[in-house]
Amino acid sequence: MIERNWTHKRSYYLANFILFIYAMGLFLVLVLFSVPSHAARIKDIASIEGVRNNALIGYGLVVGLNGTGDKTGTLFTVQSLSSMLTRMGISVDPNAVKVKNVAAVMVTAVLPPFTRTGTQLDVVISSLGDATSLQGGTLLLTPLKGPDQSVYAVAQGSVSIGGFIGGGGGDSTQKNHPTAGRIPSGALVEREVPFEFAKMERFKILLRQQDFTTALRLAETINKAFGASSKSAPVAHPIDSATVELVVSHDYKGREVALLAMIEALDVPIDFSAKVVVNERTGTIVMGDQVRVSDVAIAHGNLTIRVKTELQVSQPAALAPRGSETVIVPQQDSDVVEGDSKIVLMRGGTTIGTLIQGLNSIGVTPRDLISILQSIKAAGALHAELEIL
Asked: Which of 88-92, 342-346, 372-376 is predicted most confidently?
C-alpha cells in the first residue's frame, strides 16, 4: 500500500516537473524570438482629412490703459482711433488725438472643426505698437477673419496679462510679459466652416509622421478589425507614406461617427526612422533607440592655452626726488595644457545606450558630443538622420 502511494506521488511530481519545463521553454522561445514593437492608438498618430483647426486673425484697439499705451508717433493707432470715432459720428482732428491710453493689437484665435454659431473661443492679444503694458485694458469689438477674408468670429472683453509692470523714478519692476495677454471665451463664433461630414463615402487618414511601414500596418489593422479577408475587398488601403483611404461600408452608412470612433481606438505598431536631433544653441541632444553605429574609433582630447597677466606696481621711495612717478609693470605668464587623449572603439551595431556609455567614459560634454556626432556622420558610421536645429 505504501509503495503504491509512493509510485502515485512520484508520477504526479514527474508530470508537474515536465509541465513546468515545457512552460519555461515556451516562455523562453517567446522572449527570444519576439520582435519588440511600439504600438500607439490611431488617434494619436493620425488625423482625418478635413477635420482640422482654422486660424483666425484680426486688428483691434485696447482702451482704458493707465498711460501705458502707444506713443503719439504711432500713426496707425492714431488713424485707427480717429476712424473709429468718425464711424460713431464724432469728428476729430487726427493731429489732436492722444493715444497714451490706447494700444493697437493683433488678435488671434483658433476655430476648431465642427464649431457651431454661438460657440465661445479663447483669444490671444499682442501689442502691435510701442505700448509698455496692456494691464487693465479692454479690447473693443474686433472682427476675426479667416484666410478667405470672411469674418468667422468677433472678439471683445477685458484683457488678462497674468502679470504687471510698475515703478517710477528710474526704478521699475515687471512680472511676466505685460504686452501680450488673453481673453478667455472672448470671441463669439458668427459663421460656421462648411463641412459635409455625414455624407462622405470615403475618408482619408493622414499620418502625422510619414512612413510607408506605419501606413501599411495601419491599413492592415483596420482591415483585421473589420474581418476583411484576402478574398473580400479591403475597407482600408494605403495610398502613400502619409495617407490611408478608408471606405465607409454599408453597415456604417449614416453612422460615420461610430465608425471613426472605433477606428481611433485601434492600436497600431508604429515604425519610425532613426534620427538624432541636435540643438547647438542649448547643447540639447535627443536620439531614438533605432540609432545604430558601425565600427568606428573615437579619439577625444582637449588642448587648453592659458595666459595670465599680473600687474606689478613700482612706487617711488619715501625720499625720492621730485617728479618720480608710480610705474605699473605687467607680468605675463602663459602655459599650454593638453588633456589626456582617449580612444574608444565602437563595434558595429552599437545601440544608442552603448554609444552614450562609451562617450561618457571619455568625459565628453554635450557640446563635445555634438561635434563627435557630426564627425561620426561625416565618416559614414552613424546610421541615422542628423538634424541640427
From this structure: 88-92
85 and 184 inside one domain = yes
Shared domain check, 180 and 62 = yes
Q: How far apart are CA 164 and CA 158, in angstroms?
A: 15
Give phi and psi for 112, each to the nearest 5. -70, 160
pLDDT at 188 over 70: yes
**Which ranges of the chain would DSSP assign to H, the alpha helix?**
2-33, 42-45, 75-87, 212-225, 256-264, 352-361, 366-378
Task: Verify that 218 and 337 share a domain, yes or no.
Answer: no
How many domains does one find in the chain? Answer: 3
Smallest CA-to-CA distance from 188 within 127, 116, 104, 105 is with 116
Q: Which amino acid is at 372?
A: I
288 is written with which cell numbers? 531614438
Judgement on whether residues 289 and 229 belong to the same structural domain of the protein? no
The backbone torsions φ and ψ at residue 224, rounded to the nearest 5 degrees and listed phi first, read -65, -35
- What is the residue range of 66's domain? 54-164+174-189
Q: How far is Cα 15 from Cα 6, in angstroms, rounded to an integer?
A: 14
Answer yes or no: do 262 and 307 share one domain.
Answer: no
Kindly report the pTM of this predicted structure: 0.66
Q: Look up residue 125 and give its amino acid.
A: I
Kindly state whether residue 258 falls inside one of the protein's structural domains.
Answer: yes
Per-residue pLDDT at 170 exceeds 60: no
CA distances from 88 to 42, 82, 360, 362 (A): 53, 10, 70, 74
| Amino acid making up residue 88 | M
Checking if the pLDDT of 147 tops 80, the result is yes
CA distance 101 to 105: 13
How confident is the model over 293-333, as pLDDT tens digits? 777 776 666 544 454 556 566 666 666 666 666 666 666 55
